[in-house]
Amino acid sequence: VTGSIKVNGKPVDFNTFKRVAGYVEQFDSHLETATVREAIAFSADLRLPSDISTEEKAKRVEMVMDKLELMPYAEVMIGSPSTGGLPADIRKKVTIAVELIMDPDLLFLDEPTTGLSSKAALEVMRIVKRLSEEIAIVCTVHQPSAEIFNQFDWLLLLQSGGEVVYFG
């Protein structure tokens, strides 16, 4: 197997790529005892450059929470599916927020609707659609509902074995 990895037709510089792209994993991995604000602020403290002031980081945290409609949950502990806490769709938004704090130009979402009810999945995808107006988003989804399917601007449909069935 051979190939090359390119973005906009140019070979990828992975040191730069890590700073301009975010990746949201399929499954959440948050500290259960952290609040929504603490989880996002922790990501900001660890991942943003040290020359960004504490005040600027706090502003970014507030901006991201507002953008993802997380303000009502800012001081709520995240919890877990087994112990309770935030609903799954809100936890998914927190996972997106932890990546969005980096202000990426490109955001990869690995099955953001996994484990969500159809209503919660649509709510998450509504937020993703709104984010796509500001940044490029690449998202994988298995068996989307018609409502979720209609949220996408471009589709790459694959069949078993990875063969492209449709792109457009």
Characterise the protein shown here.
38% of the residues lie in helices and 17% in strands. It is globular and about 45 Å long. With 168 residues, it is α/β, with parallel strands linked by helices. A hairpin with a 5-residue loop joins strand 8 and strand 9.
Radius of gyration: 17 Å
- Poorly predicted tracts of residues: none
Main sheet record? 3 strands, parallel
Q: Distance between the terminal alpha carbons, to the nearest Å?
A: 26 Å
Please give the share of residues in helix.
25-40%
How do the helices and strands follow one another from N- to C-terminus? EEHEHHEEHEHEHEE
Shape: globular
Distinct helical segment count = 6
Q: Strand order of the main beta sheet, please?
A: 3-6-7
How confident is the prediction overall: mean pLDDT?
88
Q: Strand percentage, roughly?
A: 15-25%
Q: What class do helices, strands and sheet pairing give?
A: alpha/beta
State the total count of DSSP E strands. 9
Summarize the structure.
The chain is 38% helix and 17% strand. The protein has helices at residues 14-20, 36-47, 54-67, 88-100, 118-131, 146-149; strands spanning 6-7, 10-11, 21-24, 79-80, 84-85, 106-110, 136-140, 156-158, 164-167.
Write the layout of secondary structure elements.
Blueprint: E1 6-7, E2 10-11, H1 14-20, E3 21-24, H2 36-47, H3 54-67, E4 79-80, E5 84-85, H4 88-100, E6 106-110, H5 118-131, E7 136-140, H6 146-149, E8 156-158, E9 164-167
Parallel strand pairs: 3-6, 6-7
Antiparallel strand pairs: 1-2, 4-5, 8-9
Helix pairs in contact: 2-3, 2-4, 4-5
